[in-house]
Amino acid sequence: MKKINIFNSIAGILAITLATTACADIEYPEHSKASALQQIYMSVSVPQVDKSKVVYESVYGVIDENNHKVTFEVPYNMSEVLDDVTDLTHTFLVASVPVSSVITPGLGGVHDMTNPLNITVTAADGSKSYYTLEAKLKKSDKASITSFSFTIGDNVFTGVPDEATHKVTYFVATPELADLIAKNPVIPNIEVSPRATILNDLSQPIDFSKDVVIKVQAQDGTVVDWTIAQSEPQILDYGFGYTRKKYVLSSDALGITGDLNIRSMTVTNNYLVMHDRYFKFKLYDKETGNYVGEAGYPADLSDTNKANSMYIDKDAAGKLVAGSFTSWTTGSNFVLYYYHDGETVAPKRILQVAGLGDCGRKFTVCGNLTSGTAFVYATKGKGNLVYRFRFIDGEYKDMATITIKEPNAAFTYMCTPIALSNTADSEFILVDQQATGVGSVSKHKADGTMVAQMADDAKCQSGGITADGKVFTFNGATYLMYIDANSNSTLGCLRIYDITSADNFSMGASHPNFGKFLVFKSDDMSSTTNGNGTAAVAYDIAPDGQTCDVYMMLTSGGVMKYQLTKIAL
Question: Which residue of 131, 159, 449, 487 has the smallest Cβ count within 10 Å?
Fold first, then answer.
């Protein structure tokens, strides 16, 4: 066996390594010649409203190797809310240099940078680089409009600033609003960059129906022209986008201060119609809310069909329909009256059916009662029956009785049935106020079989729903609306759901697309007393189909009106 001398082998390897590396000039860190600044910043005190707080911000220096200079562009005012000039007498400096390099004089401690500071960076091998550090207070050159708006009546117009084009665009939803702006010069609300000023005279009203140039001057004197421009927004091809509150009318303004007297509401022709429990129908101008008068009184109203409680709706022709609640009529008849000649003329009685029991406190009309086929849906209170009355050319033909098995074996007096189409095999929705504590909203086939139910966390937030629901179609979408009331019905808000897609109906609040189901929620409205089924909703689609007005009434608390548009903002 051959033996190997390990010591001789190690010596040979070492000799080869030394011979190889002797040809290269290895530079270790401790012998580095690098002496250039890599980075340097200054910490500057930011004034605070609370003087006990100490806050510093960093300002990085710009290194100019050719001229051996470092410049700090320090904002003239570090605070955006206080006008204290930045204090350069108490600053801190932090620098990055190559390994083993040394800065003299040292940067530790506080530095007064009101005058230039000369420093030297010495490398490990003794080579040096020299720098002059200089801090300059720079006034802001920001001259931006950060927000813009103006108000005319209840209408607030908000502009969107574009920094790239120096343009503020505000959108006008309707020609009516464009005319309103042209007729009403206003003093706008404009916010600009900190310490910038507006050179225009804003003490006098300005006509914003035309392009207006606003001159904004920055702190350093820079002036930027901003153009305020009106624009027609994009029109949606589905559903609604921009909404605006048209008015809120108190119960005093409407003259409906009586406890629980107002029971339902609808919109027909030029009127917002509200009725009390004694068959008095109050007519209001639907655009202004001003009281106009009362509707015509049924000429054949007698002890055999007189109602102590009534409900109103409209048909597809926009004409008023009134109906009684059978258990509160002397003869226990469910009676319908049709105002086919207008609201101020005595109506025609088109239905009187006995023996239905607790029927008609809430009902809905589907179709035109003047011509063609129309249906009226009503429920049996404290029961599980839906009655579907068929009319042809305004004449009553027959009645179908539909049994509901779920979700409620017996719904309440306030349960509202709403057909989704004008056919005998139409699906319908039941909106019930107190069936499960927070209420129940369910969709059913024509035979009463339930096909979907709205989840509890989707249909209300606090106390529960009110039972007066409406379904309408606007811009290719079908919507369900009703009022979400608090636990004692002293507050309520209007909710609108997009039920166009069958999948939406069962969507819970945690679903990622829930915002496409619950598409609108109004402000809260106060009520003067307990709701007890007396809240109401109504809608009115403009003849040109461009807008839809929706109304909510909460007991004797008043009326709130919103307008839905096809405008995308």
Answer: 487
419 CB-near residues (< 8 Å, 6+ apart): 364, 366, 375, 377, 426, 427, 428, 471
Per-residue burial over 247-259, b = 16 or more CB atoms within 10 Å of its CB, e = otherwise: bbbebeebebeee
Is the Cβ–Cβ distance between 447 and 437 less than 8 Å? no
pTM: 0.66
* Pairwise CA distance, residues 193 & 521, whole Å: 34
- Decide: residue 512, CB within 10 A, 0-12 exposed, 13-18 middle, 19+ buried: exposed
Q: Give the DSSP H/E element, type plus range, for residue 181.
A: helix 175-183
Instruction: For residue 36, give Cα distances in angstroms to 61, 99, 134.
Output: 14, 11, 17
At 457-491, the pLDDT tens digits run 998 876 788 888 999 999 999 999 999 888 777 78
Residue 519 burial (CB count, 10 A): 19
Give Cα 85 to chain centroid, integer Å. 41
Please, is 551 exposed, middle or buried when counting C-beta atoms within 10 Å of its C-beta (0-12, 13-18, 19+)?
buried
DSSP 8-class letter at 347: P
Query: In angstroms, what CA-CA distances link 266 with 141, 179, 538, 553?
Result: 57, 29, 5, 10
Q: In what side-by-side order are the strands of the sheet with 373-380? A: 359-366, 373-380, 385-392, 395-403
| Distance from C-alpha of 3 to C-alpha of 27, rounded to nearest angstrom | 41
Q: Shortest CA distance to 358 belongs to which of 336, 338, 337, 329?
A: 329
Question: 361 with 376: CB under 8 angstroms?
Answer: no
Three-state SS for 395?
strand
User: Phi/psi of residue 503, each to 5°?
Assistant: -70, -25
**72-116 pLDDT, tens digit each:** 999 999 887 788 999 999 999 999 999 889 999 999 999 999 999
